[in-house]
Amino acid sequence: xxxxxxxxxxxxxxxxxxxxxxxxxxxxxxxxxxxxxxxxxxxxxxxxxxxxxxxxxxxxxxxxxxxxxxxxxxxxxxxxxxxxxxxxxxxxxxxxxxxxxxxxxxxxxxxxxxxxxxxxxxxxxxxxxxxxxxxxxxxxxxxxxxxxxxxxxxxxxxxxxxxxxxxxxxxxxxxxxxxxxxxxxxxxxxxxxxxxxxxxxxxxxxxxxxxxxxxxxxxxxxxxxxxxxxxxxxxxx
Length: 237
What we know:
Layout: H1 6-9, H2 18-28, H3 32-44, H4 52-64, H5 68-80, H6 88-99, H7 104-116, H8 124-136, H9 140-152, H10 160-172, H11 178-186, H12 191-199, H13 203-207, H14 223-226
Helix pairs in contact: 2-3, 3-4, 4-5, 5-6, 6-7, 7-8, 8-9, 9-10, 10-11, 10-12
């Protein structure tokens, strides 16, 4: 069943709220930026405007038209149970849509889900691949998380020089939690490890070349979730 247009549900005068009216007109034409903006207004606006049902409607409209920010927000809503019941499978679905388009935040969140096994098969190999993709785009939490994985060596032998370099880069990008990890690990590096550490100046030096998108196409394990795209047509204009 299709969702009725927001304008049909509660028409308002353009004189009453011209800014909201203009965003709604643009949103109805299929403009995903306007759809996301309208969702944010309904989600976080003043009490007279705030409406969680309308916010969800417009987040979904924007997400189903490919807006990665809306997809990531919806993923977080389902992950945390905000405005909706907690649903890790649905959260993974929206994170994957955004991650497959190269959204660094979504790649971080879906990596966390793979690492923990929430809504997805537990797979540290896939998790580390996603952390790398997010880290390459400057996500400081992904850089820190990657350092933890290198230090803990879940999928390989410990790589303390890479771990320390990840912590250093995450700290430089604003992740203050990385500071103590970086200091403690540096104190334990051998001279040989320190020489390797000094060679890792950037995340690219640490992880090498990786495409930031097309993740799903490379991992058929995600196929069933991605096929849910076919079920979203009832939201489209």
